[in-house]
Design goal:
STAS/SEC14 domain-containing protein, 6-stranded mixed β-sheet, 130 residues, STAS_dom_sf, 40% helix, 4 helices, Rossmann fold, alpha/beta
């Protein structure tokens, strides 16, 4: 795993064996951090082009409902334009954060995004995508 970016709230890595980005969101997030974090992901995706992303929100502890529309429309659209075709999005156990993810999903038209309850299931699904 090649670590590209690491802060207490966001880590971005590139998995050269599977050719995908692993993005790990941690702690409290809001509309601003969702947007700035998303911009970081897009920046590193440009440096490590790939077609898959494991987007791990399992450690998110707050809702980010105000940023959900931007994530679902702008962010995922830009991921798709930069080549991402499949995203395995791991849900947190914290219900308000999960609700924010479900709100964002209403706006996603591309790439293919599936929600998962655990990293292992997300990993397995992402491996099967071509």
């Amino acid at each position: 795993m090649e670590h590209l970016f690491d802060t207490p709230s966001l880590s971005i890595s590139f998995d050269p064996n599977h050719q995908w980005l692993y993005v790990e969101w941690k702690g409290a997030h809001d509309a601003h951090s969702a947007r700035t974090g998303g911009e970081e992901v897009l920046h590193y995706l440009a440096q490590r082009p790939c077609h898959k992303m494991l987007n791990d929100n399992s450690q998110v502890t707050s809702d980010w409902e105000q940023g959900a529309r931007w994530v679902g429309t702008e962010y995922y659209y830009r991921l798709a334009r930069q080549g991402i075709r499949h995203v395995a999005w791991v849900c947190p156990p914290y219900w308000p954060a999960r609700k924010s993810m479900e709100t964002a999903m209403r706006f996603v038209t591309a790439p293919t995004v599936l929600l998962f309850d655990d990293v292992a299931a997300a990993y397995t699904w992402l491996l099967r995508q071509v």
